[in-house]
Amino acid sequence: MPKDPYKYFRVEARELLEELGRAALDLEKGAGGAELVVRMLRLAHTFKGAARVVGQPGMADLAHAVEDVLAPHRTGSVGPMPPGELEHLLHLLDDMGARVAALGAAGAEHPPGTAAPAPEPLENVRVEIGEMDQLLEGVFETDVRLTAIRRDSEDVARARGLATSLVTMLPAATRTRAVAEELLSVLDRADRNLTAGLDHADHELTQVRDKAHELRLVPASAVFGELERAVRDAAQSLGRPVRLETSGGDHRLEANVLFAVRDALLHVVRNAVAHGIESPVDRRRAGKPPEGLVRLDVQRRGHRIAFVCQDDGRGIDVEAVRRVAASRGLTAVTEGELLRLILESGLTTSEKVTQVSGRGIGLDVLRATADKLNGEIRLASEPGRGMTVDVCVPVSLSSVSALVVNAGGLTCCLPLDAVRQTLRLASGDIARSAERDSIVVEGAVVPFMPLARVLARTPSSALVRAWSAVVVEAGSHRAAIGVDRLVGTSRVVLRPLPRLAGPVPVAAGASLDGEGNPQLVLDPRGLVDAVLAGRGAPVVEDPASTRAPVLIIDDSLTTRMLEQSILESAGYAVELAMSAEEGLIRAHAAPHSLFLVDVEMPGMDGFEFVAHTRADPALRAVPAILVTSRHSADDRRRGAEVGARAYIVKGEFDQGLLLRTIRLLIG
């Protein structure tokens, strides 16, 4: 039994509840009849059985109550389900959903009950996003190791070349020549087989990586049921008949993006009912059908997905918004400015707070969601005809098209969606002032700052110089950053920075190049905010050229990447090793000022590495820091016994602590 006994139950339960909720709304509209009731009974029965298997009798009882509500209607002989019964059914489903959401994984005990019956053959299985990410992590590790093997294979090719030269240099028909020819044959065969095997493995890894990314995507229709339920509940609360129509549900996007957008769209559709759709009486006076319409259309726009929500209500009362804005000391002249005020300041014209509307919170959620996802929002209104809310977000936050740049010796990636222009600047193109530097782009003044200064890197040359500049846009603001070189464009996989990195406002995460070297992925909004605020970090001077590099030894790519970024940003030279064994080879090959060592690694662990270096006369003077997730007193004591100069627990880690410790040891 896995440590989390409810992991698969939660996935299945959510799917079953989503189908039941959608079917209940169809039932309310009179669609499906007895056939739909039978399908709902099967879904409820499946939920009940699964709940009992994982020892959740309360949820099973709720599913049984759902069956009790549905059972009299399975033949259709008793007529349509009364509104009261339907409300009871929906409340039961809500209760089941709340209990599933509250079913935590941490500290869960092995549930009582008997084993589940043998499953029937399945054509589909459910996979959680976290498991898919673990698969991708393994693929990345293998890809990096494959690149290292490919470099080693070049030695075989060189050896084959040397053997060829040896054969031509030796006299014919001698024993030495025969041995050399045999050696050449063996090396030739090894070179061909190794190259073919590496090419095949590389192709297979690419397919696995692409398929894993594809499996992380879910159809937009996965949230349609909840949105329809939100419209239905808001309409009933306000006594207005309203229906939701949806289209474009086959478009797929990353689950974390979709469900973040869902939370915002729930507010959007509720606002459409509360603020947009008129009462049946008012709609008749306006020549509209008594039933209001909210339409959600999902559209693909390049590497982004747009959710376009339209209603056929009254639209925005421009004058009412203008009065509310004036009462808050806000001024706007054009209708476009008023719409921007509504979005940016959370204005609401509701005179009272209800369960559906009245606090302007919906727009706050919408704006915050767009900011978090690097999305865009557009509002449009036509008086008497309705309002449109257009929310456009990336398909994926984990895989993005990026512009790769180099600044201060560091390679960084900028999401291509945020790049508006690249240009070449002479020193005279930059207007300097005490407050900030700026340039003129298409007639507009745009603040400018070297990326090396934003990242606390030493600029590669003096301030009076030419720059390659990238104009970055986030929301309604732009900034220009100066870089040393534009490397090109690439599709990068975004990897989150570990918790021990602490907050890094200008970083969205990190990626790895083909050789496993880390690249910082910049966050457009954080970058623009830093330039606008003039928050360039103080430039860290290069360390003395006599200081030997720090050797980082860790089998985790993520940890190696993070520690390398922290140390290089602080001015330290860095070398990397993926295992303690490789670390010993590198330690003997060149001098180092410090060893930064993980404890838990395959083969030789960190304790053994430190003990080995302390026993080696050539290495014992090099201080070692253990950085590990192991935090027991025994582990700390063992670290001290083997000779580690410091012991840092990853769960208590912050980069300031690491840098202070290193400075105490080596300056």
Notes on the protein architecture:
- With 667 residues, the chain is an alpha/beta fold.
- It has five domains: 7-101, Up-down Bundle (Four Helix Bundle (Hemerythrin (Met), subunit A)); 136-216; 218-394, 2-Layer Sandwich (Heat Shock Protein 90), CATH 3.30.565.10; 399-532, Beta Barrel (OB fold (Dihydrolipoamide Acetyltransferase, E2P)), CATH 2.40.50; 550-666, 3-Layer(aba) Sandwich (Rossmann fold), CATH 3.40.50.
- The chain is built from 19 helices and 22 strands.
- The protein has a five-stranded mixed β-sheet. Strands 15-8-9-17-16 form a five-stranded mixed β-sheet. Strands 10-13-14-12-11 form a five-stranded mixed β-sheet.
- A hairpin with a 2-residue loop joins strand 8 (399-407) and strand 9.
- The radius of gyration is 31 Å and the shape is globular.
- Residues 105-124, 352-356, 460-464 and 537-545 have low confidence and may be disordered.
- The CATH architecture designation of the largest domain is 2-Layer Sandwich
CATH superfamily membership of the largest domain: Histidine kinase-like ATPase, C-terminal domain
E-strand count: 22
**Helical stretch count?**
19
| Alpha-carbon Rg, integer | 31 Å
Give the overall silhouette.
globular
Helix content: 40-55%
Strand order of the largest sheet: 2-4-5-7-6
Mean pLDDT: 80
Q: Largest sheet at a glance?
A: 5 strands, mixed
The proportion of strand residues reads: 15-25%
Structural class: alpha/beta
- Span of the ends, CA to CA: 50 Å
CATH class of the largest domain: Alpha Beta
Might you state the CATH topology name of the largest domain?
Heat Shock Protein 90
- Low-pLDDT windows of residues: 105-124, 352-356, 460-464, 537-545
